[in-house]
Design goal:
Structural class: alpha+beta
Strand order of the largest sheet: 7-8-5-1-6-10-11
Oligomer: single chain
Shape: globular
Helix content: 10-25%
Number of strands: 11
Number of helices: 6
Strand content: 15-25%
Radius of gyration: 17 Å
């Protein structure tokens, strides 16, 4: 995917179609989908695990069709990401208890995101999506290597229900990203209302978008 013109990115948004950030220990609204579409720019909003403030997105491909949340915006950009991970960064952290469902931690993010990363996590960090996929062509391979990595660091093998955290990749930008909005996705009615308001296509999921796009 060295040719970004053929690459589709996803920014997952919360149920109210906002990105969030932490202000002290409180989670607050950061950027709305309306602002994202009108300005054609997405701002870095996440700071966790001792990393620089960043914008975490996902690149869609045949083997990576899941998203962090079930709603958000699909876009394209000419900007190159800073780095790419084959899984959610939390799997590489010193967290004894890893939570899959975001709603379980959304009111306690300041504690959950304060964990340090396990030494050697850099082996899962790639310069671009192509090199990542070459090493990890599918989530099943990521799952195997992440478990080996965590076990060597003294952590138990991950339970099967945590597998969802390897089914999407984490593509990171560290500066505001200029975008071309492509579509809005989400299975709830709000998503279709927002798409109609901004004259964008609506899909129930990013997976549906990918499949229909590839059939054209």
């Amino acid at each position: 995917m060295s040719n970004l013109s053929n690459t589709f990115f996803v920014k997952s948004l919360e149920e109210d179609f906002y990105t969030k950030t932490l202000k002290g220990t409180k989670k607050v609204n950061f950027q709305s989908i309306s602002d994202i579409i009108k300005t054609k720019r997405i701002l870095p909003n996440t700071k966790s695990f001792g990393r620089k403030r960043r914008l975490s997105t996902t690149i869609l491909s045949n083997h990576y069709l899941k998203t962090y949340r079930p709603q958000g915006i699909i876009f394209q950009t000419k900007q190159k990401p800073k780095y790419v991970l084959p899984c959610d960064l939390v799997l590489l952290s010193r967290a004894d208890k890893i939570v899959v469902h975001y709603y379980r931690i959304k009111n306690n993010l300041h504690t959950y995101y304060n964990h340090e990363l396990i030494d050697g996590f850099e082996s899962f960090v790639f310069e671009d999506f192509d090199s990542m996929v070459k090493q990890f062509p599918s989530p099943s391979k990521v799952w195997s290597f992440v478990n080996i990595f965590r076990k060597k660091a003294g952590y138990p093998v991950l339970q099967k229900e945590k597998h969802r955290l390897v089914e999407y990749n984490e593509v990171v930008f560290q500066s505001p990203v200029k975008i071309t909005p492509i579509a809005v996705f989400g299975y709830k009615h709000d998503a279709s209302v927002i798409a109609k308001k901004f004259n964008l296509p609506h899909y129930s999921s990013a997976k549906e978008f990918w499949k229909k796009t590839k059939l054209k």
